[in-house]
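Forum: Protein Structure Q&A
Topic: Joint prediction for protein chains with partners

I've read a bunch of threads here and the consensus seems to be that you should model interacting components together rather than docking separate models afterwards. I'd like to see that in practice. Below is the full input, 569 residues plus whatever partners are listed. Could one of the regulars post the assembled result?
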Amino acid sequence: MAGGFRYGVVPSFSPPSVGRAVWLHARLWLRRLLHLRLLLGLAVTAVAVASAAAARGRLSPDVPRAAMDTFESLGLPALALFALGLGTGALRRDADHGALDAFLLRPRAAVALPLGRWLASTLVVTGFGYAAVALAAAATAAFARPLAIERIVLLVAGLPLGAAAYCAIFLAMATIGRSAAAVAVVWWLAVDFGLSRVADGLARVSVHPALLTVVGFDTDLSVGGDAGLAVRAAVVQLLLLTIAGLAVALVRLRGDAPGA
Amino acid sequence: MSGVVLQMERVTRRFGGRVALLDASLQLGPGIVGLIGPNGAGKTTWLRLAAGLLVPSSGAVRWNGGLERGDPRLHNRIVMAGDGDALPVRESPRAYLQLLLEAAGLGYEDADRHAGEVLARLGLEGKAEVPIATLSRGQRQRVKLAAAFALPADLILLDEPHNALDPVWRLEVTALCREAAAAGALVIVSSHILEEVESISERLVVLYRGRVVASGPRDGVKRELGRRGTALLVRCSDPRGLARALLGHPSLLRLDLDGGWVRFGGDDLGAIQRGLAAAVAASGVAVHEVRTEGDDLTSVFRALGEEIR
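Posted by a regular:
Agreed with the consensus. Here's the joint model:
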């Protein structure tokens, strides 16, 4: 047969440490994720959200929160949807074809693969959020009025927290099986986006209300101390949700590999 | 690598209330082992347990002389080419192999070059850059095998490796299995293409309905199973009469009528033959042809099925 390969002859290499393996899996997953179709989808959505926010701000000059309200009602759901696709896809895209086995055969991969792919998904979703904020700020400044600088700071600080929590929760849901995406959509619509607004208990296990508080959409900054407390509580909530999501995913992957 | 590569101790695996593997115990060292059994015998469950992809419900699986699942020393020591697609279909073969090699610890350029060489050995150099989804079944199978053989390992698990391959590539895969075994690996080949397992394996593990019903050197297992599976096929003038005459013989375990043939199965062929001679002499039935059945694995499966049923 053709080719110079003989079994056992391989360039020298050393197994990566856990930390390096996490970054390796993040890098490899980013390489697979960042294809033209996804980048176009992210860019078009960011432009659409920013344009809508700027247009609303220009059309309603008397409503000080008009642009922000539009960003809240379009930008944050878009962020959650990208996190849903990327978070569940981080495992299901390979597992549904039985292709995850080849990676999970390595002992450290049960930890490094989910953490690396979660990190990569969080970076992409945060990147989308930042792009949308930057475009919205630019468009609003050009066509309507400047966004308050403190709001932009809160968005820059809050979006990675929200992206991390969403991606971790959806990653945990991806370990359920083939129905992961459906379960994630139902949870997002019914609990995170729906019932969490009316039921305080559900708000504690939801990302959306905490994210609204952190990025300032639900916070009256002029209140001072109380608002600061609410923001800190929301940050802690997002961090706990992230840790819980990752812990569930890691524990589940220590058991049976999610096969096809 | 020498000594015990794979050790199973009383391994049982249940899925809900269904027992997929029951009380499996064995120790295997380097070489080529055939894992055989009819569909639904539990081969894939056995392989996934051996790969550490499934956790036993009870019992223990250990590797390389006693290492437990998750031990970092098992990094890159176990590989598996699963049944079905088991491939990321959007990637190209080269990108997929490169991903696996980089995840193993190779640098980008080394991984790229090595992936190219492995794919060339399996005749995929012309298809290295197209999405796996566009490849034929045989080509996909070769991508899986390229991934399995790309790096040296101690345990190589191949689920139906000859599926969809033409004879030329079957020989090439057999050659790769032999190279790996010569390098000290334990290569486990699961198949229902029994002749291929027979020709390639030094040892056999036979699964039936979730149980390891036989394991050991190929010829010994075949002899043992053949003893249980051997039958006499007799074409005669009165099959029903001959069957009736031998009914109640102490060595007779199975009896089938098929057209002009009658099949006598049992655990002592010599005793059945003597009983048959006496029955023929007493009944006056004209015997036209006598055949022995049971020295191939297909017959063994049939016998096992009847015995366990």
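Chain A touches chain B at residues 1-8, 10-11, 13-16, 21, 24-25, 28, 32, 93-94, 97-99, 101-110, 254-257, 259-260 (CB under 8 Å).
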